[in-house]
Design brief:
Layout lengths: L20 H9 L2 E3 L9 E3 L2 H9 L3 E2 L12 H7 L12 H7 L7 H25 L5 E2 H6 L1 H11 L6 H12 L5 H22 L7 H10 L6 H13 L2 H17 L1 H9 L4 H12 L7 E4 L3 E3 L2 E3 L4 E4 L1 H4 L36 H18 L4 E2 L7 E2 L8 E3 L1 E3 L1
Bound molecules: protoporphyrin IX containing FE.
The site of protoporphyrin IX containing FE (HEM) has 30 residues, from helix 7, helix 11, helix 12 and helix 16.
Organism: Aspergillus pseudoustus
Protein name: Cytochrome P450 55A2
InterPro entries: Cyt_P450 (IPR001128), Cyt_P450_B (IPR002397), Cyt_P450_CS (IPR017972), Cyt_P450_sf (IPR036396)
């Protein structure tokens, strides 16, 4: 293909939460193709499940954003690449060294120990919704989907209870799709300033939380410095937050759109785990993180990719690959998916560090939501739902409901 023909990426969703139609076409016609980004760069787009997995485990490819050719999705991304990198943007061995400093707070065992807190947080929010009643429609985002994941990560980080309302306000500004870039950037700066002060204060009073663990790493010569502590804490505070909010909202709408599956879940809350598995596959709401750049020339399915060329490995497309998921466009919570093959959380070394946590939160939400609010329904028509912009990650920005 010549560059003039390269389609512009990201592709747009045709409507609501439907993935871009271009992915299905490319899977059957051209699994490795060039696309054009906002800055006229032309990375490769990889759309088949097997090749996406190959890209995400190929050590000849880099996730370092400063590497020339790394595909940036927005001008803001280019600016972010100049910041001090955290493990998200590092390659081996530095990547694992820094990731391991916080990994124990995200193991299945640690997440299991958090489950009572998660369930209590979900249930107390649902109980207050029940108590509050719904004479007028209630925005589920504000009163449920946004606070739950924020409160859980604050707990892990060790944010003092008295600071939670301030942080929640800042986080709402960051994730609210209608904030301007400048306002969102100010909120980021405020959060970083806040964390810097907290790290200083906590240094004299170490506890059992994640920030204290990072400060302790800082005390080991050659490990990390104070700026790293603040950057990693900030990363964990904000990474995945918007995705979690979107997954809760998308889960509610998806269940309402599939009443017999909703009925099954209502009767048997243990179906929450397979429901969450399918929800994450079907919507794949974090679909731009899996980008890489070639460090040397490589060949992928016969296609030469030169050193310095970027690659977007589309986990969103891979999760709709019929070679791996029969009838991929059908939402079916009874599908027996191998979690490792579900690429919603990525694949390989950079696979989401918080996967177990995210699953536990979503499971707690969908075990209880329709139990506590059995008549929960939309207060608007389906075609009035405010989805994220069509070329952005799929999400729902506002969800008026009644029950
Ligand atoms: C349903 C919710 C979530 C989804 C779908 C999701 C998805 C992803 C994906 C696709 C990646 C892979 C990036 C790559 O291969 O380069 C990733 C990485 C990551 N996620 Fe999540 N995520 C979620 C929730 C969270 C939460 C709640 C947090 C923080 C508490 C988080 C923190 C991270 C971090 C730090 C990484 C980087 C891991 C690394 O580079 O080693 N995620 N996530």
């Amino acid at each position: 293909m010549t560059s003039q023909e390269d389609p512009t990426f990201p592709f747009a969703r045709p409507k609501a939460a439907e993935p871009p139609a271009e992915f299905a076409t490319l899977r059957s016609t051209c699994p490795i193709s060039r696309v054009k980004l906002w800055d006229n760069s032309e990375p490769w787009l990889v759309v088949k499940h097997d090749e996406v997995c190959n890209v995400l485990t190929d050590t000849r490819l880099s996730k370092e954003r400063q590497c020339p050719g790394y595909p940036e999705m927005t001008p803001g991304g280019k600016a972010a690449a100049k910041n001090r990198p955290t493990f998200v943007d590092m390659d081996a061995p530095d990547h694992m060294r820094q990731r391991n400093m916080v990994a124990r707070f995200f193991t299945q065992e640690y997440v299991n120990s958090l489950k009572p807190f998660i369930t209590e947080t979900v249930n107390s929010h649902l109980d207050s919704l029940v108590k509050k009643g719904c004479e007028k429609p209630v925005n589920l985002v504000e009163h449920f989907s946004l606070p739950i994941p924020s409160l859980v990560i604050y707990h892990i980080l060790g944010i003092p209870v008295e600071d939670i309302s301030y942080l929640t306000e800042m986080n709402a500004v960051r994730t609210n799709g209608s904030s301007t870039a400048a306002v969102a950037q100010d909120a980021n700066r405020d959060l970083l300033d806040y964390l810097t002060k907290l790290v200083d204060k906590r240094a004299t009073d170490l506890k059992e939380d994640l920030i204290s663990a990072l400060i302790a790493e800082q005390l080991t010569p050659g490990h990390i410095d104070k700026l790293d502590v603040v950057q990693v804490a900030f990363l964990l505070l904000v990474a995945g937050n918007a995705t979690m909010v979107n997954m809760i909202n998308l889960g509610v709408v998806t269940l309402l759109e599939h009443p017999s599956q909703l009925e099954g879940l209502r009767k048997d809350p243990s179906l929450a785990a397979p429901f969450v598995e399918e929800l994450c596959r079907y919507h794949t709401a974090s679909s731009f993180a899996t980008r890489r750049v070639a460090k040397v020339d490589i060949t992928l399915k016969g296609q030469i990719i030169k050193a310095g060329e970027g690659i977007i490995a589309s986990n969103q497309s891979a999760n709709r690959d019929a070679d791996v998921f029969p009838d991929p466009d059908i939402f079916n919570l009874h599908r027996k998916t191998d979690s490792v093959k579900n690429l919603a959380f990525g694949f390989g070394d950079h696979r989401c560090i918080a996967e177990a946590l995210a699953r536990a939160e979503l499971e707690a939400v969908f075990e209880s939501l329709f139990q506590k609010l059995p008549n929960l329904r939309l207060a608007i028509d389906y075609d009035e739902i405010k989805y994220s912009a069509p070329h952005k990650d799929v999400g729902i920005v506002e969800l008026p409901v009644i029950w």
